Protein backbone atom coordinates (compact mmCIF):
# COMPACT_ATOMS: atom_id res chain seq x y z
CA UNK A 1 0.00 0.00 0.00
CA UNK A 2 1.35 3.39 -0.95
CA UNK A 3 1.83 6.17 1.58
CA UNK A 4 -1.00 8.10 -0.02
CA UNK A 5 -3.46 5.41 1.07
CA UNK A 6 -2.67 5.25 4.77
CA UNK A 7 -5.95 5.84 6.58
CA UNK A 8 -6.74 6.82 10.14
CA UNK A 9 -5.15 4.39 12.51
CA UNK A 10 -2.43 3.54 9.99
CA UNK A 11 1.21 4.40 10.28
CA UNK A 12 1.12 7.93 8.99
CA UNK A 13 4.58 9.52 9.14
CA UNK A 14 5.28 12.42 11.51
CA UNK A 15 4.18 15.77 10.03
CA UNK A 16 2.21 14.01 7.33
CA UNK A 17 1.40 17.34 5.68
CA UNK A 18 4.99 17.56 4.37
CA UNK A 19 5.76 13.83 4.13
CA UNK A 20 5.53 13.87 0.33
CA UNK A 21 6.94 16.18 -2.32
CA UNK A 22 3.38 17.14 -3.30
CA UNK A 23 2.62 18.06 0.30
CA UNK A 24 5.77 20.16 0.60
CA UNK A 25 4.94 21.96 -2.63
CA UNK A 26 1.40 22.71 -1.41
CA UNK A 27 2.67 24.18 1.83
CA UNK A 28 5.39 26.21 0.10
CA UNK A 29 2.97 27.44 -2.55
CA UNK A 30 0.53 28.50 0.11
CA UNK A 31 3.17 30.53 1.93
CA UNK A 32 3.78 32.35 -1.37
CA UNK A 33 0.04 32.95 -1.69
CA UNK A 34 -0.03 34.43 1.81
CA UNK A 35 2.82 36.73 0.80
CA UNK A 36 0.63 38.09 -1.98
CA UNK A 37 -2.24 38.50 0.49
CA UNK A 38 0.04 40.54 2.75
CA UNK A 39 0.69 42.93 -0.14
CA UNK A 40 -3.05 43.31 -0.80
CA UNK A 41 -3.91 43.96 2.83
CA UNK A 42 -0.92 46.29 3.15
CA UNK A 43 -2.31 48.38 0.31
CA UNK A 44 -5.74 48.52 1.96
CA UNK A 45 -4.22 49.49 5.31
CA UNK A 46 -2.19 52.27 3.66
CA UNK A 47 -5.30 53.61 1.91
CA UNK A 48 -7.30 53.55 5.13
CA UNK A 49 -4.60 55.36 7.11
CA UNK A 50 -4.40 58.03 4.43
CA UNK A 51 -8.17 58.54 4.33
CA UNK A 52 -9.32 57.84 7.88
CA UNK A 53 -9.66 61.54 8.76
CA UNK A 54 -11.51 62.46 5.55
CA UNK A 55 -14.97 62.85 7.11
CA UNK A 56 -16.54 66.09 5.76
CA UNK A 57 -20.10 65.62 7.03
CA UNK A 58 -20.48 62.05 8.22
CA UNK A 59 -20.07 60.32 11.60
CA UNK A 60 -16.48 59.97 12.80
CA UNK A 61 -14.73 56.91 14.13
CA UNK A 62 -14.90 58.29 17.67
CA UNK A 63 -18.67 58.54 17.34
CA UNK A 64 -19.24 55.21 15.62
CA UNK A 65 -17.00 52.61 17.19
CA UNK A 66 -18.16 50.65 20.23
CA UNK A 67 -15.03 48.95 21.49
CA UNK A 68 -16.89 46.45 23.67
CA UNK A 69 -18.50 44.90 20.58
CA UNK A 70 -15.25 44.88 18.64
CA UNK A 71 -13.40 43.43 21.64
CA UNK A 72 -15.92 40.57 21.76
CA UNK A 73 -15.39 39.93 18.04
CA UNK A 74 -11.64 39.93 18.62
CA UNK A 75 -11.94 37.48 21.52
CA UNK A 76 -14.06 35.13 19.41
CA UNK A 77 -11.67 35.20 16.46
CA UNK A 78 -8.56 34.73 18.60
CA UNK A 79 -10.24 31.81 20.36
CA UNK A 80 -10.92 30.28 16.95
CA UNK A 81 -7.21 30.57 16.22
CA UNK A 82 -6.54 28.51 19.35
CA UNK A 83 -9.03 25.83 18.33
CA UNK A 84 -7.38 25.61 14.91
CA UNK A 85 -4.06 25.04 16.71
CA UNK A 86 -5.70 22.16 18.57
CA UNK A 87 -6.86 20.78 15.21
CA UNK A 88 -3.30 20.88 13.87
CA UNK A 89 -2.03 19.15 17.02
CA UNK A 90 -4.66 16.43 16.51
CA UNK A 91 -3.52 16.16 12.88
CA UNK A 92 0.01 15.42 14.09
CA UNK A 93 -1.41 12.74 16.41
CA UNK A 94 -3.25 11.16 13.46
CA UNK A 95 -6.58 11.67 15.24
CA UNK A 96 -9.17 12.50 12.62
CA UNK A 97 -12.10 12.75 15.04
CA UNK A 98 -10.29 15.41 17.07
CA UNK A 99 -9.33 17.27 13.90
CA UNK A 100 -12.96 17.33 12.83
CA UNK A 101 -14.16 18.40 16.28
CA UNK A 102 -11.75 21.30 16.69
CA UNK A 103 -12.30 22.49 13.13
CA UNK A 104 -16.07 22.36 13.64
CA UNK A 105 -15.66 24.58 16.72
CA UNK A 106 -13.44 26.89 14.65
CA UNK A 107 -16.19 27.18 12.04
CA UNK A 108 -18.81 27.99 14.68
CA UNK A 109 -16.60 30.69 16.16
CA UNK A 110 -15.97 32.09 12.68
CA UNK A 111 -19.72 32.27 12.09
CA UNK A 112 -20.12 34.05 15.42
CA UNK A 113 -17.52 36.60 14.35
CA UNK A 114 -19.27 37.18 11.03
CA UNK A 115 -22.62 37.58 12.78
CA UNK A 116 -21.20 40.30 15.03
CA UNK A 117 -19.59 42.04 12.06
CA UNK A 118 -22.86 42.08 10.14
CA UNK A 119 -24.61 43.48 13.22
CA UNK A 120 -21.86 46.11 13.55
CA UNK A 121 -22.20 47.19 9.90
CA UNK A 122 -25.99 47.44 10.21
CA UNK A 123 -25.59 49.72 13.22
CA UNK A 124 -23.14 51.91 11.32
CA UNK A 125 -25.48 52.22 8.35
CA UNK A 126 -28.27 53.21 10.74
CA UNK A 127 -25.96 55.98 12.01
CA UNK A 128 -25.49 57.24 8.44
CA UNK A 129 -22.10 55.59 7.92
CA UNK A 130 -22.78 54.21 4.44
CA UNK A 131 -20.15 53.03 1.95
CA UNK A 132 -20.20 56.24 -0.12
CA UNK A 133 -20.72 58.68 2.77
CA UNK A 134 -17.08 59.72 2.94
CA UNK A 135 -13.56 58.62 2.00
CA UNK A 136 -13.22 57.30 5.55
CA UNK A 137 -16.36 55.18 5.17
CA UNK A 138 -15.28 53.79 1.81
CA UNK A 139 -11.81 52.84 3.01
CA UNK A 140 -13.22 51.38 6.24
CA UNK A 141 -15.77 49.12 4.57
CA UNK A 142 -13.27 48.06 1.91
CA UNK A 143 -10.63 47.01 4.44
CA UNK A 144 -12.87 45.46 7.08
CA UNK A 145 -15.24 43.97 4.50
CA UNK A 146 -12.35 42.44 2.56
CA UNK A 147 -11.21 40.76 5.77
CA UNK A 148 -14.76 39.61 6.51
CA UNK A 149 -14.94 38.03 3.04
CA UNK A 150 -11.74 36.14 3.87
CA UNK A 151 -13.29 34.86 7.09
CA UNK A 152 -16.41 33.73 5.19
CA UNK A 153 -14.23 31.94 2.63
CA UNK A 154 -12.28 30.26 5.45
CA UNK A 155 -15.50 29.08 7.10
CA UNK A 156 -16.70 27.57 3.81
CA UNK A 157 -13.31 26.00 3.07
CA UNK A 158 -12.96 24.36 6.47
CA UNK A 159 -16.56 23.15 6.38
CA UNK A 160 -15.95 21.45 3.04
CA UNK A 161 -12.74 19.89 4.40
CA UNK A 162 -14.63 18.43 7.35
CA UNK A 163 -17.29 16.96 5.06
CA UNK A 164 -14.67 15.59 2.66
CA UNK A 165 -12.67 14.01 5.49
CA UNK A 166 -15.66 11.88 6.50
CA UNK A 167 -15.14 9.93 3.28
CA UNK A 168 -11.44 10.34 2.52
CA UNK A 169 -10.04 10.06 6.04
CA UNK A 170 -6.61 11.31 7.04
CA UNK A 171 -3.78 10.54 4.64
CA UNK A 172 -0.60 12.15 3.39
CA UNK A 173 -2.78 13.51 0.56
CA UNK A 174 -5.46 15.08 2.78
CA UNK A 175 -3.16 16.18 5.64
CA UNK A 176 -1.63 19.12 3.68
CA UNK A 177 -5.15 20.42 2.99
CA UNK A 178 -5.91 20.59 6.71
CA UNK A 179 -2.55 22.15 7.42
CA UNK A 180 -2.77 24.97 4.87
CA UNK A 181 -6.35 25.70 5.97
CA UNK A 182 -4.96 26.19 9.47
CA UNK A 183 -2.27 28.54 8.13
CA UNK A 184 -4.93 30.53 6.30
CA UNK A 185 -7.03 30.84 9.45
CA UNK A 186 -4.06 32.05 11.49
CA UNK A 187 -3.30 34.61 8.79
CA UNK A 188 -6.77 36.16 8.87
CA UNK A 189 -6.59 36.21 12.68
CA UNK A 190 -3.30 38.11 12.57
CA UNK A 191 -4.74 40.56 10.03
CA UNK A 192 -7.66 41.18 12.38
CA UNK A 193 -5.29 42.07 15.23
CA UNK A 194 -3.87 44.80 12.98
CA UNK A 195 -7.38 45.95 12.02
CA UNK A 196 -8.42 46.09 15.67
CA UNK A 197 -5.36 48.20 16.47
CA UNK A 198 -5.14 50.47 13.43
CA UNK A 199 -8.84 50.91 12.64
CA UNK A 200 -10.66 50.65 15.94
CA UNK A 201 -8.23 51.59 18.70
CA UNK A 202 -6.55 54.40 16.76
CA UNK A 203 -9.95 55.52 15.48
CA UNK A 204 -11.42 55.72 18.96
CA UNK A 205 -8.44 57.68 20.25
CA UNK A 206 -8.68 60.09 17.35
CA UNK A 207 -6.07 61.87 15.18
Automatic annotation (TrEMBL):
Q: Which residues form a coiled coil?
A: none
Keyword list (alphabetical) reads: Membrane, Oxidoreductase, Transmembrane, Transmembrane helix
- UniProt-listed CDD domains: Ubiquinol_oxidase_III
Membrane-crossing ranges are 30-51, 63-87, 99-119, 140-163, 183-203
Record GO terms (molecular function)? oxidoreductase activity
Its family remark reads: Belongs to the cytochrome c oxidase subunit 3 family.
Q: Mind telling me what this protein is named?
A: Cytochrome c oxidase subunit 3
Q: Organism source for this protein?
A: Paenibacillus allorhizosphaerae
User: What gene, per UniProt, encodes this protein?
Assistant: ctaE
Amino acid sequence: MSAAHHEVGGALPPHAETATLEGKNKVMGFWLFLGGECVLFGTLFASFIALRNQVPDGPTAQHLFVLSTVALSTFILLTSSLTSVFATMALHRNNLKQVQLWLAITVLLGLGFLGLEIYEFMEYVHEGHTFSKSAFATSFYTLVGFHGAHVAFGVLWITLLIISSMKKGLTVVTAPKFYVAGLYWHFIDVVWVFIFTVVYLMGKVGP
